[in-house]
Amino acid sequence: MKTTNLDVIIVGAGFSGIYMLHKCRTLGLSGRIIEAGTDVGGTWYWNRYPGARCDVESMTYSYSFLKDLEQEWRWPERYAVQSEILRYINHVVDRLDLRDDIQVESRVTEAVFDDTTNRWAVATDAGDRFSAKYCIMATGCLSTPNLPQFKGLDQFEGDWYHTGFWPKEGVDFVSKRVGIVGTGSTGIQSIPIMAEQADHLTVFQRTPNFSIPAWNGPISDDADRAWKKAYPELRARARVSPVGSPFESPEISALEVSDAEREEIFETRWQQGAFNFLAAFSDLLSSKEANQYAIDFVHRKIRERVNDPDIAELLCPKDHPFGTKRLCVDTNYYETYNRDNVDLIDVRTTPIKEIVPTGILVGETTYPLDVIVFATGFDAMTGALMNIDIRGRGGMAFRDKWADGPSSYLGIAVAGFPNLFTVTGPGSPSVLSNMMVSIEQHIDWISDCIAHLEAASMATIEPEQDAEDTWMAHVNQVASEFLYEDSNTWYLGANIPGKPRVFLPYVGGVGHYREVCDDVAAKGYEGFALTPAGGGSPA
Ligand code: NAP
User: Fold this and answer.
1) 73 CB under 6 A from ligand 1?
2) Residue 536: pLDDT above 90?
3) pTM of the model
4) In principle, which of 54, 211, 247, 403 could form an S-S bond with 328, CB 3.0–4.6 Å?
5) Quick check: CB of 184 below 6 Å from ligand 1?
6) Secondary structure of residue 107 in the 3-state scheme
7) What average pLDDT does this structure show over 132-143?
8) pLDDT single digits (tens) 12-56
9) Cα dihedral sign for 461, 467, 469, 472?
10) Whole-number pLDDT of residue 537
11) Helices and strands: H and E segment counts in the chain
12) Is the pLDDT reported for residue 538 higher than 70?
């Protein structure tokens, strides 16, 4: 079987993979992206469910390295809809002339490191074979949909969908009785739209989430001009900020202001919408007392927005601190429960028993449905990597190494797996940040690293186990200073039965993390072992 030789193989054609391929071109290296979907876009290719849009403001959710495009592109709305982001990604791919090196409809099934040649042998389900010096896992953090094993799903006589595998042609809900399982960010975005289209919508809720209004709307020409003028400063600020945002970071504690001041600050942040609310005070995610103030404020807002007091109580999260589950951002989510054609069913008290041919059985009650939508999330951060049979030095299986939870140096590389990089992997700020900022930081770091290895005629780079262990201890230590571990979230793997409970992202902040990564590189890749080409001992 023919093997294609490359310098760099990249798995995934989302924002990370596309930027990495561009970097390969600028480094003069041959690179190819292997992508499972029929086209580019990654998360924005797969998640086409009704209401899908980015919770991060569109003016900040784009590549910063494309200075001309940053000025030219006109984002119509404050929060971009999925189709607009996909249009942007396709435009970038064409503008940078990358398409010829993107192979679609091919899923990478295995990647095996050869100790003798120091190269990765990569295979796809389409039967392709590649050999590459570097292997870049740009596989995404939320790219492996989680479909809970509901008994009887195969007997269901209607249609069912997972939001993460939404059909390109869309789904017609008109005159249909629709049921949706899941009230995370995805459910909360799609429920108001589905309610408008369907004859009847039944929402099956196990855990209510905190959601803040998006206050979405068109971006005026004046606002667009102002953003574009300030882009250099805003991008620079985002790079050193805690969460990759150009907006100011909170400095005051919720405990050091009067009740009236606190209420006013919360209200101001509420009116700014979305993640701005989390920036109301510096200690919302580290102090239980401060957090309780946020809980009480948002509960009051939910009760104002929902007419039926019993439904409002069901929608008020009471089992986890505010913001420790990924905050949701909505347009008319709570108001949707004031509609006559929407019911909320609590499947915490009485869980879903099974799917029956005509609908969903909860306790002894069957809810008749024509369509079921599963907005049940993802096997986050590790799922996509664990689905590939990755073998490192001496045939070591990645799945074995991470059997008790991920272990990585800087969330970017793994001891025993030379020349393999995990973009926004566990142990990096990743999903706790604006992904665009973190993706660019990782790809910049990886490509600088590759440039260094090539210039210095190095064969391999890989983390030292000690450096990895120290980093993981630090990741866990920092996480324990926050309230995150008090919640059963996908950040901890708690949504997947049997997944080890390990806090996955790095909470230390984007700006601080960038300094650490830059420092490691400046010190000659401290904590990494580099092996010269043509043999010799690791340095
Ligand atoms: P999610 O947050 O994991 O939510 C999954 C939902 O399904 C939860 O409500 C969960 O309930 C429920 N569920 C799972 N298994 C169930 C079962 N067996 N029975 C009943 N309910 C069940 O997933 P998501 O909403 O797809 O969001 C995942 C992440 O994607 C977000 O946190 C966010 O980071 C990202 N996202 C981003 C955007 C954006 O705009 N940028 C939009 C959407 C999503 P429990 O909570 O009880 O487990």
Assistant:
1) no
2) no
3) 0.97
4) 211
5) yes
6) coil
7) 98
8) 999 999 999 999 999 999 999 999 999 999 999 999 999 999 999
9) negative
10) 53
11) 15, 20
12) no
**What would the pLDDT profile of 494-528 be if each residue is shown by its tens digit?**
999 999 999 999 999 999 999 999 999 999 999 99
CA 475 / ligand 1 centre spacing (Å): 24
Residue 15 and residue 151 in contact, taking contact as beta carbons nearer than 8 Å = no
82 within ligand 1 shell (Cβ under 6 A): no
Nearest CA to ligand 1 atom 37: 185
Identify which of 43, 206, 430, 496 to mutate to test ligand 1's pocket (most ligand atoms within 8 A of the CB): 206
534 pLDDT band, cuts 50/70/90, is confident
Hey, whose CA ends up nearest to atom 34 of ligand 1?
Answer: 326
* CA 375 / ligand 1 centre spacing (Å): 6
If you take atom 46 of ligand 1, which residue's CA is the nearest one?
Answer: 207
Cβ atoms of 314 and 205 closer than 8 Å = yes
CA–CA distances in Å: residue 132 to residues 37, 119, 439: 22, 6, 22
CA gap 186, 380 in Å, rounded: 14
Kindly state the average pLDDT of the residues 121-143.
Answer: 98
Q: Where would I find the beta strands (DSSP E) of 376-474?
A: 389-391, 420-422, 458-463
404: pLDDT strictly greater than 80: yes
Query: How far lies 413's CA from each of 422, 505, 535, in Å?
Result: 6, 14, 22
Across the range 329-353, mean pLDDT stands at 98
Distance 495 CA to ligand 1 centre (A): 9
- Closest C-alpha among 350, 378, 375 to residue 364: 350
CA distance 83 to 39: 13
Residue 469 CB neighbour total at 10 angstroms: 14
Q: Two tokens at 305?
A: 């927005």
DSSP code at position 529: E
Q: Which residue has the tokens 């120290």?
A: 470
Q: Is the CB of 180 under 6 A from ligand 1?
A: no
Query: Is the beta carbon of 201 within 6 A of some atom in ligand 1?
Result: no
4 has a pLDDT exceeding 70:
yes
CA 26 to ligand 1 centroid distance, Å: 38
Q: Is the pLDDT of residue 469 over 70?
A: yes
Cβ of 495 closer than 6 Å to ligand 1, yes or no, is: yes
Write down the pLDDT at residue 146: 98
Answer yes or no: is the C-beta of 179 below 6 A from any ligand 1 atom.
no
Q: Is the CB of 183 under 6 A from ligand 1?
A: yes
Write the residue with the smallest CA distance to atom 6 of ligand 1.
Answer: 182
CA 272/CA 277 separation, integer angstroms: 7
Q: Mean pLDDT score of the chain, rounded to an integer? A: 97
Mean pLDDT of the 128-148 span? 98
Q: What are phi and psi of 423, to 5 degrees?
A: -75, 125
Q: What is the DSSP letter of 248?
A: P
